Amino acid sequence: MPDEGNRPSTFEGFYRATVAPLRRYLARLLGNSTEAQDVAHDAYLRVYPKVQDESARNPEAVLYTTARRLAINQLKRRSIAPVTPDPGTVETAASSAPGVVQEVMARQELHQLEQAIAQLPEGCRAVLLLRKIELLSHQEIASRLGIAVSTVEKQHARALRLLRTALSAASDRPAATPHPASNPEVTS
Does the domain formed by 101-187 have CATH 1.10.287.110? Predict the structure, then answer.
């Protein structure tokens, strides 16, 4: 029978006696207290059976060796895919690239915008595209189309108003619902 004076008789006692020093050791090794807690937890999971059946001669040494190896593996993973979260915060996004959901939503919004522009009256559509796509001033649009600047301003304002209305109506409908063929304000 092992010497009971040198180690606690239960796993709970062993855990209480070693958890704080182990976490401090791992925090120094990893440079991150959150990772240290995770690695310590994993180490206890691996050492638990040996402590329970008392097959380890020195369970504290087994614990520290296991924890050190897990920490080294963690450091290797970190060097392969470096992640530097702020201490005390949880990183919620693995990548700043848009996900599939965001891409699908963006495509749907673009499709809705294209449909709304296509439904604009011809004059409004021409003014809007010259202003927003070709970045022409109202004066330049007026000279290109041979109309007054005030007409360009009115057509541009009307186009924006019609688009706003069409897009807000589109966002209120479920995605599977087709756009209505007759919108009284758009067909005029």
Answer: no
